[in-house]
Amino acid sequence: MIETKSHPWIPSLTEESVKKMLEVIGVGSVSELFKDIPSEILLGEDSWNKLEIGLGRPLSEIEVKELVEEKLSRNKVFNPPPFMGGGVYPHYVPPVVRYIISRGEFLTAYTPYQAEISQGLMQALFEYQSMMAELLEMDIVNASMYDWASSIAEAALMAFRVRKGRRKILLPGNMNPLHRRVVETYVKPQGLMIETIPFDRELGTVDAEAVKSMVDGDTAAVYVQYPNFFGIIEDNVKAIGEIAHEKGALFITGVYPVALGLLKPPGELGADIAVGDGQSLGLGMNYGGPHLGIFAVRYDMNLVRQMPGRIIGLTTTIDGSSKAFAMVWQAREQHIRREKATSNICTNEALMAVASAVYMALLGKTGLRRLAELVYYRAHYASSRMSDIGLTRVFKGEFFNEFPVSFNNIGVKYSAVHEKLLEHGIHGGLYIGSYYPELGEVALYAFTELHSVKAIDRLIETLKKAIEEVRGR
Amino acid sequence: MIETKSHPWIPSLTEESVKKMLEVIGVGSVSELFKDIPSEILLGEDSWNKLEIGLGRPLSEIEVKELVEEKLSRNKVFNPPPFMGGGVYPHYVPPVVRYIISRGEFLTAYTPYQAEISQGLMQALFEYQSMMAELLEMDIVNASMYDWASSIAEAALMAFRVRKGRRKILLPGNMNPLHRRVVETYVKPQGLMIETIPFDRELGTVDAEAVKSMVDGDTAAVYVQYPNFFGIIEDNVKAIGEIAHEKGALFITGVYPVALGLLKPPGELGADIAVGDGQSLGLGMNYGGPHLGIFAVRYDMNLVRQMPGRIIGLTTTIDGSSKAFAMVWQAREQHIRREKATSNICTNEALMAVASAVYMALLGKTGLRRLAELVYYRAHYASSRMSDIGLTRVFKGEFFNEFPVSFNNIGVKYSAVHEKLLEHGIHGGLYIGSYYPELGEVALYAFTELHSVKAIDRLIETLKKAIEEVRGR
Amino acid sequence: NREPLIFELGGKGRTGIAIPEPEEEVKRRVGRVEIPSEMRRDREPGLPELSEVEVVRHFTNLSQAAFGVDNGPVPLGSCTMKYNPRIAWEIAGDPRITNLHPLQDERTVQGLLEMLFELQKWLANITGMDTCILHPAAGAHGELAGVLTIRRYHEVKGQIDRKTEIVIPDSAHGTNPASAAMAGFRVVEVPSAEDGNVDMEALKSIVGDSTAGLMITNPSTLGLFEEHITDIARLLHEHDALLYYDGANLNGIMGYARPGDMGFDIAHINIHKTFGAPHGGGGPGAGPVCIKDRVVDKEKGVRLSDLAPGYRVIYDEDTGLYRVKGPGEHSAGLLKAFLGNITPLIWGYVYILSMGPQGLRKATEHAVLITNYFMKLMENVKGYTIPYGKGRFRKHEVVLSAQPMAEEIGVTAEDVAKGLLDAGFYAPTIYFPLIVKEALMVEFTESETPENVEKYVERLKEISRIAYSNPSEPKTWPRNTSVGRVDVVKANHPKHVTPTWRIHVKRLRGEI
Amino acid sequence: NREPLIFELGGKGRTGIAIPEPEEEVKRRVGRVEIPSEMRRDREPGLPELSEVEVVRHFTNLSQAAFGVDNGPVPLGSCTMKYNPRIAWEIAGDPRITNLHPLQDERTVQGLLEMLFELQKWLANITGMDTCILHPAAGAHGELAGVLTIRRYHEVKGQIDRKTEIVIPDSAHGTNPASAAMAGFRVVEVPSAEDGNVDMEALKSIVGDSTAGLMITNPSTLGLFEEHITDIARLLHEHDALLYYDGANLNGIMGYARPGDMGFDIAHINIHKTFGAPHGGGGPGAGPVCIKDRVVDKEKGVRLSDLAPGYRVIYDEDTGLYRVKGPGEHSAGLLKAFLGNITPLIWGYVYILSMGPQGLRKATEHAVLITNYFMKLMENVKGYTIPYGKGRFRKHEVVLSAQPMAEEIGVTAEDVAKGLLDAGFYAPTIYFPLIVKEALMVEFTESETPENVEKYVERLKEISRIAYSNPSEPKTWPRNTSVGRVDVVKANHPKHVTPTWRIHVKRLRGEI
């Protein structure tokens, strides 16, 4: 229990300060300041204090630490990290990133509405936009959205504004199913429709022929994810974009940015809007958030005018003596345009954008390729090792770092294997049978630079043992 | 394995940079720059690379983290922390402290030889000196020594300089035995002598009568530690100081600064020099270092001139327009005075002094008393609970936070009890039978604010169980 | 601003992080990298090349040209820029949170789920609601969750075709109408009365059959408690419309009044405002939504909270485990892929745990105390007025107007803002709420010291004195910041607008 | 410097950390606090009273008025201000290191002890020595350990009464003579020759029966490799004197030559220089001492390393455990209470582990490369000379002299230093080594970029141009720092000297 005669986070909570302020204001007690609250809804101190809020009393840091430590001890950090992706990947986060975003000047700043005193923050955000633009080879990147899923959703809404009157968007069946659900949530209230593009059951890639038949004059946009949810490198992205464009639809691509070390950027594939998640670029997995929604467009004012989110631009001071940064195209945003804004987004993921900027700066020109190659090799090594023990990939398409593994042919439930792996301290892949019941007992395994050869070898051995144990039952 | 074509910590390690620099210098290869090293001692690259240095190859951060993680997993952080002191105490370190000393401007700075560009660091050190001076009620505090032990040693050497010609220093038998060893190391090469003041076997306090008989005209200084190694609050500190002063000897006191929340500061007890360790004021235990040697003197130029260590002073700019900070009394130091310096100390524990300044600033005027009271209460609660299970204190003197517990009367070896405690995940007190064989099976138990009532109760139960288990054998 | 752009730094071939080569055994087994040729990137991305030390220096220097609560007062109205306690920074940054995969086995994240479960409960008690959902990533995201829930309410009741309007006061945050529009509603604005309350007569004339709901913040953006709130709730409910609480200003009444008790059906909370999580220069935030346990369809057993989007953390009595439950069949769905923005949620958890109900109430009291202290000190200062709610106390914030100065000598709210920057303060929110001309919206929060408030007042007075003696001087402000006044017009001019380095280069090359 | 002193901040009754009240049950059991009355503190210490946010702001603002490697080049000669890799910061700050009690059961700290054991071995291999001790807290502390070992050597051999002198070159660091004196030796200085080597003739005339040892750094503080080092070693050993290596300049030869191979008996290492640990504004450091396995007393089996002070980490084959061994009977004893300064030692461990032998050698190469690049660019710049070792390459550092400028126009090395500060550089070490007048001792290390070196050269040239065209201008420098030139004379004047706030207050009150 700590006293409340003074408190480290409330400097004016001292007898002296309260007395002085009350005197100046001219009231006898603090409660007078609340007298305009109708008595039927005014809470008494006692009834408030009795509510279950925290432990019902103020705690010292020492008590908080002790209490929280016990809880944290019930979270398991796997080492090696889970062999699991599905849109979130256990990548290495350099301590430099953590250090920079812990600096109070960035951490405790508000949205830089006052440009002159926020130049460092604005420059960092501008550099995020600029470096991300280079990764994507897109011209304009906003200062962030919430996550990949909401970026697609906003891209869809944007497409409907740009292609006013069209009422349909095409989403592939092999996109991340959680992303799909978010798009539905955003799109439905507008009375708009989603159609699903089938994928090739053998290769795992989008059925380009189907796209051709589905795109029409009512299609506002076509979306493709690469690598797709199955980790497969869609090889016909550009072609699909061309099909979309032929019918006047916008082309939206979603990317796992690490893959861009080896794969063509959206800008080269004809994307009008590119989205993705910056989580893999220097952020922790954070149990799903905060992550970083990437949102980029071509430099076409018809697109830019409908783009959601904050954008920092390079300019000069009024006297021209120095470069300077300012928010640009603010008239799109809710604080100016209100119900006619391009989105309601206000607070975004700025600090994560800074983190990602630091990470991209560390990687540099060649780092991304090197990282992508390492990840590629590790995943392909794992795939090869898996086939040694009879585990095969579900799809034949070329993959990047992630692939569904079938447990159908060896006749075990994946949940039983998962259980055994856990017992041996390993967290295996993601069971995707719930999303794709037709695939049966299939788990999506993912690999990153944090999965060393030793770790992969251990996984294989443990998988083998686990399968034997399950069969033995 | 990582390439060495470029390296994140060596920016000029690129083909382009090397080529340019070699050209400007006018040599064909880097090795030419080493040609003045006689060939018989010049190491070939291959023989160097074969030496066991690290893993014999450069590692990436990812590999380093993985490797070190395994090692760290073999260190045990006890929760509750060890019930152990002996000069180092598991106190709470506020995250604010860690945050501030992680800021690169402080962390990566050098000794502030260039005042104008180092004002922030100097002010922080000045504030350390000043706040520590208030705790101690001493006028002058230096910017730090290595640790408590070396502070006593330097204080002893200083006393011999101040009282030139005297050849003896008195150290109490109940001071920290490790400190004693350090003093010996520093003092002996000067051909000086140490005599030991006996302590009262019942109370555990310094025998003041003995001091009276031991101090003479050859005594340069008398040292007293409070609370002493047995945690006992020496109640005759002032009297001993007066005895020392009567014979013209300096009076040196050593303190555990947290105790100064309840105990009179050295300045009020007549100390000429006050020493101690700042570890308890915002530093981790760090397996014994870095800690923070406190060193303070009265404002008497006879003392100041002989004082070791760096001191920052408040002054102004030359034009008088602003307050400013500068190093003062540098002529005492090794970089000016060389072999005639008051000490060889150069690099000290500056960052730890800043940490401790932040901690003292957080505590404020009343925090130290509150902390000391809490620690006092917890320790006395533990002592009382211990007597419930038949464990008694060895000395009768009033104690602060630490006390030796006797296992003699219950007829068990402490090492066996310790073993059992460990099995139950508890780290008990420090066995001091090796320092004081005459005390028998005695362990020094210490308590801080991190030992909650729950933790103490758990200790008591576990002690009880452990003793039973040991006896049961 | 002397720090170069990162693209102007570094040197060819440098790197800031060593990525290991694939192991020989791996290469041997795998062979060459096989990327379909039409998908293989054939040039490296145009990133700069810096060593680690250069990256650290660059961003360290940039940070020094930024300003947060750690640097001094940031009294941005409606933004609730509190101190962000470092104990929460330490806990939220623990690897046992940051290294968890959102899809990893629930049994391996029980500690985290327990914290989130408790947070849901605490927030429900704080707001007087029944159920809280931690899903939304920010306040506006929470608003969207809320209005989508209102939409679902009318859909389930089969009256969505009729219920097409959301009513919003003219003093509202811009996100309110924008969120309503995203949920497919038409926005109808209701004016404020001179006393700062909603104009009840106007409201009565607006609310009707087509009203789906009303979004309102209380206290309002003027810092004034809406005195007719229970009447408003009654009026709305009479028309089967739902009442939505914008929680941006919760810091003005927490512990004194609860949205649930006022009659609100849905409320969002800004963890990064009221509960001490940092703003991070514009996010991440967390905007939980709390909902009344109101029956929507008795037969089907559908309750209002079933309609809200997002995941819930539930406790399964049978197994003794906490679980993450996805949106059910009646739910509006998902607003983002995973549970929520965990980092700020944990900050909030630690803040509430540390404060307890007593501390939260004290926080509100001191936020209100310091606001009224400030307002009192600003009474009758030449050049400024304090419009609306004359004679009324403010809650968490107060809106000044620089209209006299603007009209008399042409010195605007923006000029005043720049003058504050020069004195080491962040400026207030300006030109908002829209109903106040030359608005200066000031919110100190309980984190600010009285002496900083006094200094701020002194500076506002000084600005007025300077302005009236030399009206052109304020146009030269700021002078003490890293750059002088920024050319925002140029920044937006079609010939100059430069949102990325890529565009900059293209402009230089004449490609644009 | 606008940031007030902390004593000028805060307000009565505030606190920055909530210390809990003792529990009721505890108070009940214990009763009142019983402190002997003559020992009870009767007034609170005169600390300031600040809330947490005020403390954070204060020290954040102070940090912004400090300058480290993270802010820009800090080319302080002989200080080896490298970049401090953040990976080491993360590891050294891990609670599984910072929360360990030095006296806790060795079985519970095996991971740490293994790291330290490995570090001992690696350092031995790097220096070409047999045993390393991690005990000393800094370079000077390591020197003391070394000279105490020399003392013990002569004591054990019964010749300490005769062996009273330590020989030290005139270019040595001040710590060398100071350490020798602390170990009870008389210091004899040997001059440097014009080529930068020790004057061998002089040395031969000095070394004799009373010579206990010689302390030398190689490369010297002039950045020059001592070409006669093996002769020197032979000479010393002929007189049964030991050779001590000051490791401050190891960064100039690491991977190319080892003190052990040169004939040194004892060497210290600065982890916070050569191995990337941060300086922290003046510490903590770590100064391990490495020693040859030289037999001292064959009969008793005493070796040189047995004489060194401090703890050793050993591996116990029987139990498979690492253990901490205290100083044995022949040891000089302890220099501080516990094993060593663990935090910087772990930085060093991580640095060496990351670099491997290849990386360490590359580091040396680039430190040397950039030094010679700089020297070349500074050749024939008006106002500066490069004394000693004409035509010789430098190793890790180079010493310029501003003597021409000083003599011709009165612009001193200090003025040059201040002029560098204005350009965003930390100044070089000045007026050292003592054998160079108006010395500017520059060490960039391998962490610096060539372009920063070029900018530094440009600034040195600019300073010279300005100085020669207007010799009074440099006296007004620095101008761009947080304060103008500091009044050091006043700072030290008996009437003004103010080493603490306490003295400041006493002066104000007329008590001093």
Automatic annotation (TrEMBL), chains A, B:
Its EC number is 1.4.4.2. It catalyses: N(6)-[(R)-lipoyl]-L-lysyl-[glycine-cleavage complex H protein] + glycine + H(+) = N(6)-[(R)-S(8)-aminomethyldihydrolipoyl]-L-lysyl-[glycine-cleavage complex H protein] + CO2. Pfam families: GDC-P. The keyword Cell inner membrane does not apply. GO terms for biological process: glycine decarboxylation via glycine cleavage system; nucleoside metabolic process. SUPFAM superfamilies: PLP-dependent transferases. It comes from the Archaea. Keywords: Oxidoreductase. GO terms for molecular function: glycine dehydrogenase (decarboxylating) activity. Residues 14-463 form the Glycine cleavage system P-protein N-terminal domain. Belongs to the GcvP family. N-terminal subunit subfamily. The glycine cleavage system catalyzes the degradation of glycine. The P protein binds the alpha-amino group of glycine through its pyridoxal phosphate cofactor; CO(2) is released and the remaining methylamine moiety is then transferred to the lipoamide cofactor of the H protein. This is Probable glycine dehydrogenase (decarboxylating) subunit 1. The gene is gcvPA.
